[in-house]
Amino acid sequence: MKKFKYVYVSGPMTNIPKLNFPLFAKVTKELRKAGHLVISPAEMDGKPDINAVWINCMRRDIICMLSKCYAVVLLPNWKKSRGAKIEVWIAKKLSIKIIEYKHWVKGGYYGLLVD
Description:
Elements: E1 7-10, H1 21-33, E2 38-39, H2 41-45, H3 54-68, E3 71-74, H4 82-93, E4 97-100, H5 101-107
Parallel strand pairs: 1-2, 1-3, 3-4
């Protein structure tokens, strides 16, 4: 199975209990176990902080995604996330691979799966 230098985990946080950190942690752990290097916004934040300034977090996250990552792994319900939709739009424009997590775990398909 092909492995990327770094993959970026993208998904909803706002209005989700604990900012969805438990799911980000679970997916990050699974990807690392499979041999990938992972950038997770939840890890960059350290702990859930509902008072964090969204635009500052997005700028930081996008810089990391662009500077290090060759693929984006999308968590369930990513389409409900303003930030994830922005990250997907940028990734598409820059030909970064985009994979929904549910497809990743079903067979490791590495390709553009998001329209």
